[in-house]
Amino acid sequence: MQISIVIPLLNEEESLPELYNWIVSVMQSNSYSYEIIFIDDGSTDDSWKTISTLAAENPSVKGIKFNRNYGKSQALHAGFLAAEGDVVITMDADLQDNPEEIPELYKMVHEEKYDLVSGWKKKRYDSVLSKNLPSKLFNAAARKTSGVKLNDFNCGLKAYDKRVIKNIDVYGEMHRYIPVLAKNAGYANIAEKEVKHQARKYGKTKFGMERFINGFLDLISIWFLSKFGKRPMHLFGALGVLMFFFGFTAAAWIGLSKLYKMYYGLPNILVTDNPWFYISLILMVIGTQFFLAGFLGELILRSKREKDRYLVSKTTGFN
Hints:
Strand order of the largest sheet: 7-5-6-4-1-2-3-8
CATH architecture of the largest domain: Alpha-Beta Complex
CATH superfamily of the largest domain: Spore Coat Polysaccharide Biosynthesis Protein SpsA, Chain A
Structural class: alpha/beta
Helix content: 40-55%
CATH class of the largest domain: Alpha Beta
Radius of gyration: 26 Å
Number of domains: 2
CATH topology of the largest domain: Spore Coat Polysaccharide Biosynthesis Protein SpsA, Chain A
Oligomer: single chain
Number of strands: 8
Largest sheet: 8 strands, mixed
Shape: elongated
């Protein structure tokens, strides 16, 4: 099979038939062998009913339904596990991603041998203050932190070599950073293609301003994991030893200074009246905690990591 199209969705019953017809038209005009995998992320409307109808009409349509809303990352992860195509293309279900971009994206991965091609919605139809400006700041921070030179990390329209999606773990809210996850997994041949952005036709966006706050927090997490995820002792242990050393040195100086003044009969104060005593004590305590955090991190890495789980309540279209 040439192409798997993975489409996560939440309450998009109005747009699904139009999106489906558009995709099928593109697939048939290019004579591609394909599958369309819809992942219903706990919709409360008739999205699943629409998917089931499409799957009954076309064997190339498959559906996965979660029993509740787990998030886009979990939906993509489920779609990646099910995908069988040589090239996997992801897109949103709200008609803001243009299926006409699929042939060129497929060519870049299949013929030009890119590991991943990310869409770039250079011209957007979103609100400047609520989406465009925060998105620019977010992407600039992501480029600086990750070293992946993309203009639009969060664009849903992406194409992947099958090897990439089978060897990365998309969990939490890491769907924004799949290119970074791919790079960290050794798939660094990443390109960007300018794509058309369609104005939303039905419904309203499912994401608010909190996605940018969560995005920056996830960016810090993925930066930390990429730098120290396999060697936490290098960070926490080093910080712990350094803080303990300064605290111990300060405490030793205070003690020796006290003994010196007592020996020569010089005026002195109680050690507990010296504020530096408490500062040194706190440094030693925090340093010990940092060291233990690094040690526990090393132990955790040697145990099986408990992944985020989702529960699939229904499927359709699969053999």
